[in-house]
Specification:
This protein is mainly α. It has one domain. It has four helices and no strands. Helix 1 packs antiparallel against helix 2 and helix 3 packs across helix 4. The longest helix is centred in the C-terminal third of the chain and has 51 residues. The protein is elongated.
Length: about 120
Protein backbone atom coordinates (compact mmCIF):
# COMPACT_ATOMS: atom_id res chain seq x y z
CA UNK A 1 0.00 0.00 0.00
CA UNK A 2 1.28 3.44 -0.91
CA UNK A 3 2.41 5.66 1.97
CA UNK A 4 0.10 8.49 0.85
CA UNK A 5 -2.85 6.13 0.90
CA UNK A 6 -1.85 4.94 4.37
CA UNK A 7 -1.75 8.54 5.52
CA UNK A 8 -5.20 9.23 4.05
CA UNK A 9 -6.63 6.14 5.77
CA UNK A 10 -5.04 7.12 9.10
CA UNK A 11 -6.48 10.63 8.88
CA UNK A 12 -9.89 9.31 7.81
CA UNK A 13 -10.05 6.78 10.64
CA UNK A 14 -8.96 9.29 13.28
CA UNK A 15 -11.45 11.85 11.96
CA UNK A 16 -14.27 9.27 11.90
CA UNK A 17 -13.49 8.07 15.41
CA UNK A 18 -13.30 11.64 16.77
CA UNK A 19 -16.46 12.72 14.97
CA UNK A 20 -18.46 9.76 16.28
CA UNK A 21 -17.24 10.34 19.85
CA UNK A 22 -18.16 14.04 19.50
CA UNK A 23 -21.63 13.11 18.24
CA UNK A 24 -22.13 10.76 21.18
CA UNK A 25 -21.09 13.39 23.73
CA UNK A 26 -22.63 16.55 22.31
CA UNK A 27 -25.50 15.44 20.10
CA UNK A 28 -26.63 12.38 22.03
CA UNK A 29 -25.99 9.89 19.24
CA UNK A 30 -27.21 6.41 20.13
CA UNK A 31 -24.27 4.25 21.21
CA UNK A 32 -25.75 1.17 19.52
CA UNK A 33 -25.68 2.94 16.17
CA UNK A 34 -22.21 4.36 16.67
CA UNK A 35 -20.43 1.15 17.68
CA UNK A 36 -20.20 -0.03 14.08
CA UNK A 37 -18.64 3.28 13.01
CA UNK A 38 -16.12 3.09 15.83
CA UNK A 39 -15.24 -0.49 14.89
CA UNK A 40 -14.87 0.53 11.25
CA UNK A 41 -12.50 3.38 12.14
CA UNK A 42 -10.41 1.07 14.34
CA UNK A 43 -10.26 -1.55 11.56
CA UNK A 44 -9.20 1.08 9.05
CA UNK A 45 -6.54 2.29 11.48
CA UNK A 46 -5.21 -1.27 11.88
CA UNK A 47 -5.11 -1.69 8.10
CA UNK A 48 -3.26 1.62 7.84
CA UNK A 49 -0.60 0.82 10.41
CA UNK A 50 -0.22 -2.78 9.29
CA UNK A 51 -0.68 -2.74 5.50
CA UNK A 52 0.60 -6.31 5.27
CA UNK A 53 -2.73 -7.53 6.66
CA UNK A 54 -4.82 -5.79 4.03
CA UNK A 55 -2.35 -6.71 1.28
CA UNK A 56 -2.47 -10.37 2.29
CA UNK A 57 -6.27 -10.38 2.50
CA UNK A 58 -6.63 -8.66 -0.85
CA UNK A 59 -4.33 -11.21 -2.51
CA UNK A 60 -6.15 -14.11 -0.86
CA UNK A 61 -9.50 -12.81 -2.10
CA UNK A 62 -8.21 -12.04 -5.60
CA UNK A 63 -8.28 -8.22 -5.64
CA UNK A 64 -6.00 -6.38 -8.05
CA UNK A 65 -4.87 -3.87 -5.45
CA UNK A 66 -5.15 -3.29 -1.75
CA UNK A 67 -7.05 -0.04 -2.20
CA UNK A 68 -9.70 -1.91 -4.21
CA UNK A 69 -10.05 -4.38 -1.36
CA UNK A 70 -10.50 -1.62 1.22
CA UNK A 71 -12.98 0.19 -1.00
CA UNK A 72 -14.96 -3.03 -1.48
CA UNK A 73 -14.84 -3.67 2.26
CA UNK A 74 -16.16 -0.16 2.90
CA UNK A 75 -18.98 -0.65 0.38
CA UNK A 76 -19.88 -3.93 2.08
CA UNK A 77 -19.85 -2.18 5.46
CA UNK A 78 -22.18 0.53 4.17
CA UNK A 79 -24.44 -2.12 2.64
CA UNK A 80 -24.79 -3.78 6.05
CA UNK A 81 -25.46 -0.40 7.68
CA UNK A 82 -28.22 0.40 5.17
CA UNK A 83 -29.78 -3.01 5.74
CA UNK A 84 -29.78 -2.60 9.52
CA UNK A 85 -31.30 0.88 9.18
CA UNK A 86 -33.98 -0.53 6.88
CA UNK A 87 -34.90 -3.09 9.54
CA UNK A 88 -35.12 -0.36 12.19
CA UNK A 89 -37.28 1.80 9.91
CA UNK A 90 -39.63 -1.12 9.25
CA UNK A 91 -40.04 -1.74 12.97
CA UNK A 92 -40.68 1.96 13.60
CA UNK A 93 -43.33 2.02 10.87
CA UNK A 94 -45.09 -0.93 12.46
CA UNK A 95 -44.99 0.78 15.87
CA UNK A 96 -46.28 3.99 14.32
CA UNK A 97 -49.25 2.19 12.78
CA UNK A 98 -50.00 0.53 16.11
CA UNK A 99 -49.85 3.85 17.95
CA UNK A 100 -52.10 5.53 15.39
CA UNK A 101 -54.64 2.75 15.79
CA UNK A 102 -54.55 3.00 19.59
CA UNK A 103 -54.98 6.78 19.50
CA UNK A 104 -57.84 6.45 17.02
CA UNK A 105 -59.58 3.93 19.29
CA UNK A 106 -59.09 6.18 22.31
CA UNK A 107 -60.51 9.16 20.41
CA UNK A 108 -63.44 7.07 19.20
CA UNK A 109 -64.20 5.92 22.75
CA UNK A 110 -63.89 9.49 24.01
CA UNK A 111 -66.30 10.76 21.34
CA UNK A 112 -68.80 8.00 22.15
CA UNK A 113 -68.73 8.94 25.85
CA UNK A 114 -69.26 12.60 25.02
CA UNK A 115 -72.15 11.76 22.70
CA UNK A 116 -73.87 9.59 25.31
CA UNK A 117 -73.74 12.35 27.91
Amino acid sequence: MDFKLQLVFICASIFTFGFVIYQIRKQGLNIEDSISWILWSVLLLVFSFFPQISTWLSRMLGFMSTSNFILCLFIFFLYIMVYSQMIKISKLKAKQIELIQKISLMNCEKNQKEDSE
